[in-house]
Design brief:
Distance between the termini: 15 Å
Number of helices: 2
Order of helices and strands: HH
Number of strands: 0
Strand content: under 5%
Length: 84
Amino acid sequence: MKDASKEILRFWKTQWEAYMKSMMAMQEQGETMLEMIQKSGVLQEGSLNMVREWAKKYKSIQKSYLDAVEEHFEKLDDIIGGTP
């Protein structure tokens, strides 16, 4: 049973890493687009500040989420007894 649990955890971690890579690539593209919009002068100062504040909050929430998932993986790893 422990071997099956370890395999499942390893699979989850692999899927998580693939998700993280995809998310980071999308985030980089989004940040590039945001920089282009900011430099274009299309947005008024109030709108620009709103977008900056939104991006700042998004990053903070995202970091909290990622930290929580990583913490849970560590707890699962401890419960199962480590992955090979």
